[in-house]
From TrEMBL:
<feature type="transmembrane region" description="Helical">
    <location>
        <begin position="69"/>
        <end position="90"/>
    </location>
</feature>
<keyword id="KW-1133">Transmembrane helix</keyword>
<comment type="similarity">
    <text>Belongs to the purine-cytosine permease (2.A.39) family.</text>
</comment>
<dbReference type="GO" id="GO:0005886">
    <property type="term" value="C:plasma membrane"/>
</dbReference>
<dbReference type="GO" id="GO:0015205">
    <property type="term" value="F:nucleobase transmembrane transporter activity"/>
</dbReference>
<dbReference type="Pfam" id="PF02133">
    <property type="entry name" value="Transp_cyt_pur"/>
</dbReference>
<keyword id="KW-0472">Membrane</keyword>
<dbReference type="InterPro" id="IPR001248">
    <property type="entry name" value="Pur-cyt_permease"/>
</dbReference>
<feature type="transmembrane region" description="Helical">
    <location>
        <begin position="170"/>
        <end position="187"/>
    </location>
</feature>
<keyword id="KW-0812">Transmembrane</keyword>
<feature type="transmembrane region" description="Helical">
    <location>
        <begin position="123"/>
        <end position="150"/>
    </location>
</feature>
<protein>
    <submittedName>
        <fullName>Ncs1 nucleoside transporter</fullName>
    </submittedName>
</protein>
<dbReference type="InterPro" id="IPR045225">
    <property type="entry name" value="Uracil/uridine/allantoin_perm"/>
</dbReference>
<feature type="transmembrane region" description="Helical">
    <location>
        <begin position="38"/>
        <end position="57"/>
    </location>
</feature>
Amino acid sequence: MSLKAILTWMRLPSADRAVSNVWINDDIRPLEPERRTWNTMTFISFWLVNQVAISNWQLGASLVATGLSVWQVIIATLIGKVIISLVAIFNGYTGAEWHIGFPVVSRYIWGPYGSFIAIVQRIILSLVWFSVQSWTGGLCISVILSALFPSFQRLGNVFPASSHLDTKQFVGWILFNVSMIPVLWIHPHKIKRVLLI
């Protein structure tokens, strides 16, 4: 089987648009009105959910562990969140106004080929952040399994001490990633109801 045949087999059908390539596809086209289901409350809920994520609690605990007092941690966190909010608002303005995504914005700033540099940087950042989040989720799954099944705590370790990883943590990480696979099939415009709960 040739590479061209494999790529043709993997290509998703394009129902109403004939053109779909690296320069234009459904992920790059402006969002259609019927898919613009989020309102102000949905966006507020989305950002509030992000702020109560475990990684934010870890941030505060880590800053206290470095020697900062609680009030210093609160002030530093608030200043950081305000800066991040302003950057997110300014960065997201084009998407909110013209319903275009990051790849399109990168193209009119960097050009069609220069935008690949910005996109690769964003991919690397996403992979690093996914790694952090999936590891934290795996640790949570490991704790849940230990609470539900005390024998899970006695699971033998097959990893060397130099790996800074034990079998329980690895099992939790694998289970977390497997449990996240179905979530990948949910389009962002369909999760409005979940965010408002």
